[in-house]
Amino acid sequence: MKVAVIRFPGSNCDADALAAARLAGAEAGYVWHRSADLGAADVVVLPGGFSYGDYLRPGAIARFSPVMRAVAAHAAAGRPVLGICNGFQVLCEARLLPGALARNGGLSFVCRQVTIRVETDATPFTARYRPGQLLRMPVAHGDGRYVADAATLDLLEREERVVFRYVGGNPNGAMRDIAGITNEGRNVVGLMPHPERAAEAVLGSSDGAAMFALAAAAAGV
Amino acid sequence: MKRFRARVRVMPRPSILDPQGQAVSHALGELGFRGVGEVRVGRTVEVTLEAATAEAARDGALSMCQRLLANPVTEDYTLEAVEPA
Question: Which element (helix H / strand E) includes B10?
Answer without folding.
Answer: strand B2-12
